[in-house]
Amino acid sequence: MLQEGRPAADAVAEREALGRVAHALRHYQFGAGWEAARWERNLKLLSERHRALVPRLADKIAEARQCIYRNHLFLSALLDMFEEESGYCPPHLAPANAAADEHEARVGGGAGVTPGDHDKVRYVFKNAARDWSEEGAAEREQSYGRIVRELARLFASWPAGAADPPSVLVPGCGLGRLCLEIVNLGLRCQGNEFSYFMLLASAYLLNGVERELQWTIHPWVHSSCNQLSSEDQLRGVQVPDVHPAELVPAPGLLSMSAGDFAEVYSSPEYAGSFDAVACCFFLDTAHNVLEYLEVIYACLKPGGYFVNLGPLLYHWADAHSYLPGEELSIELSLEEVKAAALQIGFRLIRDELVEASFLDNQRSMMRGSTYRCAFWTMQKPAGSAAAATPVALAEEAAPRQPGPAPP
Asked: What architecture does CATH give domain 119-379?
């Protein structure tokens, strides 16, 4: 998050990071095209006898190139939204194309994109399928659905259409679908995201698309292993499955912040700001999960709720294998995480283990992205004993029906 008064060196570093990401999105077709060229080279190395056994392989590779081109068109439209003089996109993202030009002048064209950044571009397509396609609905139900129903239950007594509805923070909000589902309850929601890949893509999907099913993307075209059929690998999904505006019952309910969660929300201005914090596959992104717990506690209002769903994959645990030097990574068991949260001051009022998938290819021969997730609700004690009484775990309340969507 760019903030006034920060050192100029920070602003320069952030512009460089934004440019690197936009440059990678711009040159997606170069990296994906290299993979298709590798398939073609290997096909030519086969003997005539072996090529005769796979007569459609050349056609499949040609079709894959068309899928890659359609993905490229989606990213091109996405990047067209970001111009420094534009008033249509978030100001901190507006310089994306100019910053990409600067980055390209330093490193060259597509050859200057790192393999890691090529992978993160492909990750955008998988996330778009998860958050904004009909195919992703079943996976969303396993995680987003549970969280949204829990929030609806916790705030069921709040008057529908109240002038000051409860506020929910969603750190690590990715492409924003969970935020929109929360807003669709009539609650206020602020999403927070650190990755420029996610920030650029979510800004376009939330603000730039013109209609539902506007784009067909091919999230699995790059994956040639464990495919049951060529059709499965090349299949397209249409996004968005619903126009985001249809999920917003009133203006002013949704806001977004960019930046490192712990850095942004440890600021005194956010102390006691939110009625709930909802984390989905987020806690284990921390270098230090204990810091995350403290920041969540601090930014909750007294009596506020901490709803969490996710595993403990600990993203930085093996960073030493691909980054120079070592990164801080505190890896605790689920039992240790919950015990620490209780010592910080939380009360545990719901505690389950549930199964949920994350970016799982439903048609793959390898189904390796389903986790036994911790699903809990904790509460920050209120100022009085009466107000601190936890909500009873009875029936889950149905979400309130929102009013008509804005045009």
From this structure: 3-Layer(aba) Sandwich (3.40)
pTM of the model: 0.90
* Domain ranges within the chain, ordered by starting residue: 119-379
Residue bearing the bigger pLDDT, 278 or 88: 278
Q: How far apart are CA 17 and CA 10, in angstroms?
A: 10
The confidence band for 90, taking pLDDT boundaries of 50, 70 and 90, is confident
Cβ neighbour number for residue 16 with a 10 Å cutoff: 14
Q: Given this model, what pLDDT does residue 383 score?
A: 74
The CA-based dihedral angle spanning residues 261, 262, 266, 270, taken in that order and rounded to the nearest 10 degrees: 20
CA distance 407 to 405: 6
Question: What is the spatial distance between Cα 252 and Cα 188, in angstroms, rounded to a whole number?
Answer: 8
| Per-residue exposure over 167-176, b if at least 16 CB sit within 10 Å of its own CB, e if not | bbbbbbbbbb
Q: What HEC string does the chain produce?
A: CCCCCCCHHHHHHHHHHHHHHHHHHHCHHHHHHHHHHHHHHHHHHCCHHHHHHCCCHHHHHHHHHHHHHHHHHHHHHHHHCCCCCCCCCCCCCCCHHHHHHHHHHHHCCHHHCCHHHHHHHHHHHHHHHHHHCHHHHHHHHHHHHHHHHHHHHHCCCCCCCCCCCCEEEEECCCCCHHHHHHHCCCCEEEEEECCHHHHHHHHHHHHCCCCCCCEEECCCCCCCCCECCHHHHHCCEEECCCCHHHHCCCCCCEEEEECCHHHHHCCHHHCCCEEEEEEECCHHHCCEHHHHHHHHHHHEEEEEEEEEEECCCCCCCCHHHCCCCCCCCECCCHHHHHHHHHHHCCEEEEEEEEEEECCCCCCECCCCCEEEEEEEEEECCCCCCCCCCCCCCCCCCCCCCCCCCCC
